[in-house]
Amino acid sequence: MATTHLTTQILRQTPPVCGSCRRATTTGTSSSSPLTITFKTRKESSPKNQKFKWARKLSLVEQSSPSKPTVDVEGLATFLYDDLPHLFDDQGIDRTAYDEQVKFRDPITKHDTISGYLFNISLLKVLFRPLFQLHWVKQTGPYEITTRWTMVMKFMPLPWKPELVFTGTSVMGINPNNGKFCSHVDFWDSIENNEYFSLEGLWDVFRQLRVYKTPDLETPRYQILKRTANYEVRKYEPFIVVETIGEKLSGSNGFNAVAGYIFGKNSTTEKIPMTTPVFTQALDPELSDVSIQIVLPSEKDISSLPDPSQETVKLRKVEGEVAAALKFSGKPTEDVVREKEKALRSNLMKDGLKPRMGCMLARYNDPGRTWSFTMRNEVLIWLEEFPLD
């Protein structure tokens, strides 16, 4: 998980620790209609996992462990399901489950004691106010447990409080002599070189500190499942939009009609709070069949909303599904949007995902009141399915 230890550090040979860092080969599934999210792990033989070879050198468990495991690894996995969600709250994790000399490594930080491990957690709480989400926990070796997580943080010292997102896996090694965790090695999805000390990891932190000026308005709720170097994968909760026919992805044709609905041009003249972003959506491969949409507040129910006054304006519920999002700044001209859509679709297909036809452009800012280099824009593509490995 992401850390804040960004100062220059002395590179030295990492001492062996007990926890094995082999990648998991077991699988499990979780599905929701109509989208299926499959939870599985990468095979160790996968070329993408060659970058984890260095971490396997951290383990001496297999050479020194008893022939018959005596540790309740399944019980420890259940423990982590209960304990890790408290990583950054007032309760905190149970330090008695860890060796005093527990070895912690992520791409830019390392600690070799439980005190350093807990200090790192405390520092993150002060500087970043992290939100930690645990996706799954699995036994991946005789004395090894792997977890998958998402951590969203706001860097509080900067005036614009940039949001940093990290997703990845943690490999937890277990001391076979006392059943306690003796190593914790993190791997980030957004970088290739996860070995300590990773300049790529340091750059990944810094590039998320850029300025995006987003209005303090309600947005559709979503959970970030995975963040790669090129896009985020999000699981959206259902939301309601008011929409009408648009002209092009980057256009504003039809905006006055949907904005009029929330300003009172409806059957009860009700004024509805403004939200962000404004969506334009194309459903065809040529990105020419366009609608423009405003998201309605989450407490609204489609059955109780007033009817639009104009026949061309409609209300629609968008079911909760998974989308890939590519964030960018600047003016979202038609050429730029199409270029971003093409790049996102190409990366999704390269990663073996199944993007649907069309895309959505999300604009979070008023272009007349926001400098272009601080604008937040996103191109989103809905996915048929997503394997959260």
Automatic annotation (TrEMBL):
InterPro entries: DUF2358, NTF2-like_dom_sf, Reg_factor_effector_dom_sf, SOUL_heme-bd. It comes from the Eukaryota. Pfam families: DUF2358, SOUL. Belongs to the HEBP family. PANTHER family: HEME-BINDING PROTEIN-RELATED, SOUL HEME-BINDING FAMILY PROTEIN. This is SOUL heme-binding protein. It comes from Gossypium darwinii.
